[in-house]
Amino acid sequence: MRRILTLVLFLISIPAGGAEAPTVLVFGDSLSAGFGIDVDQSWPALLQTRLQGQGYEHQVVNASISGETTEGGANRIPIALERFKPAVVILELGGNDGLRGFPPERMRSNLKTIIETSKASGAAVVLLGIRIPTNYGSRYTQAFENTYRELARELDVPWIEFFMAGIAMDRDLMQDDGIHPNATAQPILLDNAWPIIREALEQAKTKT
């Protein structure tokens, strides 16, 4: 139910006559789905407000799903691209792969599929890097984190090294589970991602 609710709330926020407005597709997991907080407090909702405030006509569609893995994302990205035809895709996946100890090579392949499929559709892509605890050892953790850097370089996409920078180690900004950012942290998440989102928006503008 939560999966459907997040998406529907963003869709019905699109005003009448805005069907032709370009779309920004947020394609992530619980960090972007508003897990544990009201959807209108989530950073994608705040992104919509910022876009409007800065004169962008784009409409945000949040297709994030709590618990999503990169494999799940790779399987559903073609449908999302066909349905919403985004100008920009904000890709925030991988955390659940890392927490479950999935092979970094498999995560890399899935993320690469999502990026290449999105770019082939004409969308600009930004990549939000994730870090994980060292439960599986430093070798695994390093390979996991390097995946984002290597893909960004190989596929020439704007990226940030750590989406949760300034939040993950601050208990006041985290929910009781110690994994998910709380409502207070959402503006910081948006500020972390905003520079590359703006870069992608400008890149998409030059294609039109």
Write the layout of secondary structure elements.
Blueprint: H1 2-12, E1 23-28, H2 30-33, H3 43-53, E2 59-62, H4 70-84, E3 88-92, H5 95-99, H6 104-120, E4 124-128, H7 138-155, E5 159-160, H8 186-207
Parallel strand pairs: 1-2, 1-3, 3-4, 4-5
Helix pairs in contact: 3-8, 4-6, 6-7
Using brief descriptors, characterize the structure shown:
208 residues, alpha/beta, Rossmann fold, five-stranded parallel beta sheet, 8 helices, 5 strands, 50% helix, globular
Structure overview:
The chain is α/β, with parallel strands linked by helices and 208 residues long. The protein has a single domain (23-207), classed as Rossmann fold, CATH 3.40.50. Helix content is 50%, strand content 11%. It has helices at 2-12, 30-33, 43-53, 70-84, 95-99, 104-120, 138-155, 186-207; strands at 23-28, 59-62, 88-92, 124-128, 159-160. A five-stranded parallel β-sheet has the order 2-1-3-4-5, with helices on both faces. Helix 7 links the parallel strand 4 and strand 5 (159-160). Helix 4 packs parallel to helix 6. The longest helix is centred in the C-terminal third of the chain and has 22 residues, at 186-207. It is globular, with a radius of gyration of 16 Å. The chain starts with a helix and ends with a helix. 39% of the residues are buried.
